[in-house]
Design a protein that fits this description.
Low-confidence stretches: 1-16, 361-370, 372-394
Distance between the termini: 37 Å
Strand content: under 5%
Structural class: mainly alpha
Mean pLDDT: 85
Strand order of the largest sheet: 1-2
Length: 394
Amino acid sequence: MSTTQVIYQTNALPATTDELSRREMYAKIRALCTPDNTTNLWVLLREWSVYALLVAACLWGYHSIVAAGWSHWWGLLFYIPTVIAIALWPQTRLACLVHESSHYLLFKNRVLNDVLANVFVVFPFFGSVSNYRKGHWGHHRHVNDPENDPDLKRLKKHHRRNFPISKRQVFWEYVVLQFAPHKVFTYLKGRAEYVMFLMEGEKVANQQPLPRWALATLRISFYLTFFGTITYFGWWVEFLMFWAVPLLTFYPASLFLREMAHHGNYPDNGDFTNSRVYEGWWLEREILFPFGEWNHVLHHMFPTIPWHKTRAAHDVMMHYPPYRDHVVICDGFFFKGPMSDEYPTVVDVLTKPSHYYLRGRGQSNEATGEIRSSTADEVGAVQVKTGVLLGGES
């Protein structure tokens, strides 16, 4: 039996004999809230290496067929799959590391976190991590609040929210329509306002490890070096073909699908119900929910858990009855995974009333033992007050 199958069976277990109390659960979770300065060095190297290999393979294929006397147009057989692969793998996955770095989890050292996150993750998307942090922490403070959640307000401007809808509507509105030029524009416009420019309204005081002058110097130096290099070597066409085109086509659709999975058709803003857990087949999960994005419920509860410890944290929480008995686990996005039929896909969730798949629905917050924080000084901090571990607000 594979490891994945064991995980699925564990997720589906009924009450166990080794259930954790609230205090025991907190102690185990707190031990996992420890980022380091090495794990993501290898991750960054791997993701950029995949990008380089995709570009190199496409160019090799193109030059090979041209050398063989074939028309240049046959190069599209290599180029189109490469554009899709770049958008759905390195670009989408790097965008998830922007999220990780906004919570100071890419690297334990905060200065190192922001410097390397900006240079290798955020500047290539023309943003800065401090700008993203301001909006994202606002999302944690006001999750699913239609008046104050920056993410929800941004997504509502991009596309209407009219759940539940049919599967045909899901495919048309959230897949096909997202490739229309006006949809690409409105989604990227919202992301640009979120990542490129400092948002108004949200306050994130004393949480930027780089002074403004240092960030400005780093940003200007990066773009002068980058654009100077591609100009000197004459790589503008390659830059447009292998970075800008994926960024303006398949990349927005991929990010939008994940955001709708996280916060589309949500039942309420309860700790165990403001989002969902996503399992399913490996490839679909790695494309749409990499680096801990597969468990957005747990991230809202404890935003200081590094992505590479999310699975361990989820296993802990599956022994905590309020979480295990109320969290919604989706078995795939479009394609049903190997779990039992009681576990819906994301598409299933979007086509039913918001509370349809909730187990224990109708119970109060007190009955489900929800974890709340209204006094956290910093959304990204782990605090211990009166024996209670507080993550960010949820």
